[in-house]
Amino acid sequence: MNLKFGLATPSTLWDLDLQSRRDTIAQINDGGFDHLFMADHVSFRDGSGTDGFVEVAALSQLHPTIGVMISIYLLPLRHPLPVARQLATMARVAPGRMTFGIGIGGEDRHEIEICGVDPATRGARTNESLAIIRGLMNEETLTFHGKHFTIEQARIKPRPRQQIPIIVGGRSNAALRRAAIYADGWIGVWCSSKRYAEAVGLIDEYAEAANRPKPQWCHGYQPWIGVDKDPVKARSVVKQAMEKFYHVPFEQFERYTPFGTPAQVAEQLAPYIDAGCRLFNLKVCAQAPAEEVALGAEVLKELAKIR
After folding, report:
1. Where does 142-210 have alpha helices with state H?
2. How confident is the model at residue 214, as a pLDDT?
3. How many alpha carbons lie under 13 Å from residue 88 in its C-beta half-sphere?
């Protein structure tokens, strides 16, 4: 069983000098992580955000082999043609090392509205965008007439020699159907292992109903985790971090948020493997930011003992 592990960009990485950044990424790679991932937001809650493509491009040049992933890119806020160009560029900048995670957002309605997008249309826009991007990556010339996008004789050259995997995020059945039709996998968040297994089964059903040959699925799970030798401190640190970011009470997330010692966190993650998860993206919260990488690596070691 091959599992892939991603670590969220360490919270202090961009405050370091260039060599220290390289040393940190090398430490992450040596700790057993296959890739780094980061979120993408234009103006979330109080205006916060990171441009996913800019960051993966920068990260990819700090290490010669480690993978990079945007998880999750708010695709409905962009036009698909420039996104296809960005993907083709990343295929040249870091060949074979990028994974493209996409979603429709929704936690902050205002973020969608200020980008000129009607929040009610974001699912349909995303479906059309994925069809266009897939087409541009696979065809010489693409003409597309949809409700939200019309494209005549579009071309993106050079096309990637190696396809960039696309993984769809989201908790709704609409997201699962989107993954089944357009993507190479699904990445879940804030769900039980039981719901996760149900979702994996639904994706197979939706793909079969759409007469799509099943790809070699790479389904993932992306939890925030609190890690400390003291479980009480572990809960406190992840609670504080999540409430600061999402602006909602931690109790809404707590039952889906692993926290405790590295061994305890590993025990909470293990059921997702049995449910079909093959990729874990871990957002590690620790008392000291400098401990995020080492504690994340400890979770991986503990998980290896029980899987």
Report:
1. 173-182, 193-209
2. 82
3. 18
User: Residue 155: what pLDDT?
Assistant: 95
Residue linked to tokens 């494209």? 151
Calpha distance 174→117 (Å, rounded): 19
Q: Which residue has 């930011």 as its token pair?
A: 289
Res 239: pLDDT:
97
d(CA 239, CA 243): 6
- Host H or E run for residue 184: none
E-strand stretches of the chain: 4-8, 35-38, 67-74, 98-103, 142-145, 150-154, 166-169, 185-188, 220-221, 224-227, 259-260, 279-285
User: Is the Cα dihedral 10, 16, 17, 20 positive or negative?
Assistant: negative
Tell me what pLDDT residue 1 has.
Answer: 55
Classify domain 4-220 by CATH architecture.
Answer: Alpha-Beta Barrel (3.20)
Q: What is the pLDDT of residue 300?
A: 97
Q: For the chain, which ranges sit under pLDDT 50?
A: none
Domain boundaries, given as residue ranges, for the chain: 4-220, 223-307
pLDDT in the model for residue 307? 76
Distance between CA atoms of residues 21 and 210, nearest Å: 45
